[in-house]
Specification:
single chain, 495 residues, mainly alpha, 3 strands, elongated
Length: 495
């Protein structure tokens, strides 16, 4: 009636009065009528207010019918109210802020019933969203502190903790220039529930503040808490090296590799070797490779050692040739005279040492393979033998020494088809195996010699065919008849 008499304000007041007093279950049709009214006679603010009210009812009904622990609905509800604050033409800012706070307070009151971290992850982000809103939108910093403190009191730190909460709280205090308070927060986090992430946050803060003595103490605490954590050792040594404390860095690496239960020790060894290589302590790096080879003996150690020898020889050679001089070096000293002879000797020495390392590595792996009983470990060692020979062949190809390359190619394994008996049925199954020439030579010296002659004749024939010789002798028309007695269960594949 009011709208028919063009009393739009009075009609709007009637609608709002009815919507505030009627229960949600009976106001669905009324809201639809109110929405149509605003679309016909209202302005933009009125339409938005109607849509916001309708979405509020939807969220409230969803929370009522599903579960108050549905944190995704609470997130969407809070974002709805925050968007209403940014366009609060229809409402006062104070009232919009109160609505947002009410939603967040209701949301964080829904504490997960179980003390398992997976149930708390989404819940904690409600607290973080609440604190971020108070800091950015309302700038009520005392209330921000209250939110963080209430959140930290609620978390069962004996079972688990959330480093993100401690980190954001500390960074908030840093933005407020309360450095002592930020340190106290992170110190409490480490003391109450130590975690690698908490140590890293604290260390990053002190590094940015250039408080290196505090960083040392933090690394010591970190390693007391978890001496098996490799990144802590590496970063601690990196800190000392950055401060030009080379001996302290070296001592830290030594303590790290001495840890019996160190997790992933290979990365610490690699960092230690890289450190000595960058310091151009070649002999120290070789000693480390020697110790690592004795401790591990893995094929990666030998191949890395060979690469190191090659790169070291090249680096020393470049130095003699004056190729590694720093263009920005403003030293008044005259540049070193080029010594091509010494450079070539350094390069050849690097090649020699690399070959010696690969030869020694191959013999070491082969010896361990021979002493290992049948099983997965023995198969893995055989694969390592093949890998180190592949690496060796690649190295000789890069060097360009055809004689050395032929030697390595003669050591390469050949695929062979074999049969083995199954334990349960006694039947035989076919499988492919790698046969190394040195193993065959040791097991069947006579057969190995005949096979060598056959391969040599085949290579000679291929060479003659490639040279396109027009007249062939009778000896080349028919191969020599060589009788080779192969075991019935081994069928070699000659490529």
């Amino acid at each position: 009636m009011e709208s028919r008499h063009k009393e739009y304000d009075r009609a709007r007041t009637v609608y709002k009065y009815a919507l505030d007093r009627l229960p949600r279950s009976k106001s669905v049709g009324l809201y639809a009528s109110y929405t149509n009214f605003e679309k016909q006679f209202g302005d933009r603010a009125g339409i938005e207010s109607t849509v916001l009210g309708k979405r509020r009812i939807q969220y409230e009904e969803e929370l009522a019918h599903s579960s108050q622990l549905n944190y995704d609905v609470w997130f969407e509800y809070a974002r709805l109210e925050e968007s209403a604050l940014k366009s609060c033409d229809h409402d006062s800012p104070e009232k919009a802020v109160e609505r947002i706070r009410e939603v967040y307070e209701r949301a964080v009151a829904q504490v997960p019933p179980s003390a398992e971290k997976r149930y708390w992850r989404r819940y904690i982000f409600l607290w973080l969203g609440y604190a971020t809103f108070e800091e950015i939108e309302t700038k009520d910093y005392d209330r921000v502190r209250q939110v963080y403190e209430a959140c930290l009191k609620l978390i069962p730190h004996k079972q688990f903790t959330f480093s993100k909460v401690w980190e954001m709280y500390a960074h908030f205090e840093l933005r407020r220039l309360n450095l002592d308070k930020a340190r106290k927060i992170l110190g409490t986090a480490i003391g109450l529930a130590p975690k690698p992430k908490s140590f890293k946050v604290y260390l990053d803060m002190e590094l940015q503040l250039r408080e290196f003595d505090r960083c040392r103490k933090l690394y010591e605490k970190f390693l007391e808490f978890d001496p098996t954590y490799p990144s802590a050792w590496i970063q601690f040594a990196g800190l000392e090296r950055g401060l030009m404390e080379t001996e302290r860095a070296r001592a830290i690496y030594e303590m790290a590799i001495a840890q019996a239960d160190l997790y992933d020790p290979e990365c610490v060894w690699k960092a230690y070797i890289d450190f000595e290589e960058e310091e151009e302590e070649w002999e120290r790096a070789r000693n480390l490779f020697e110790r690592l080879a004795l401790a591990s003996g893995h094929v990666k150690v030998w191949t890395s050692w060979a690469k190191f020898e090659m790169s070291t020889g090249k680096a020393i050679s470049d130095r003699y040739l004056g190729l590694d001089e720093d263009e920005d070096d403003e030293s008044p000293d005259e540049p070193m005279e080029k010594d091509e002879e010494a450079a070539e000797q350094a390069r050849l020495q690097g090649i020699k040492l690399a070959r010696q390392v690969l030869q020694r590595g191959y013999e070491d792996i082969r010896k361990r393979w021979k002493n290992e009983p049948e099983g997965p470990v023995r198969d893995n060692l055989k694969e390592q033998r093949s890998i180190i020979l592949d690496h060796w062949k690649l190295l000789e190809t890069e060097i360009g020494d055809s004689v050395a390359l032929s030697k390595v190619e003669g050591m390469m394994p050949k695929p062979m088809r074999r049969w083995r008996k199954l334990d349960d049925t006694g039947d035989k199954e076919e499988y492919w195996d790698l046969v190394f020439p040195d193993d065959e030579k040791e097991r069947n010296p006579g057969t190995f010699k005949l096979l060598q002659l056959a391969h040599a004749w085949k290579a000679k024939q291929q060479e003659q065919q490639s040279n396109s010789i027009p007249h062939q002798t009778e000896a080349t028309k028919s191969p020599p008849q060589i009788q080779i007695n192969q075991p019935s269960e081994d069928v070699p594949v000659v490529s």
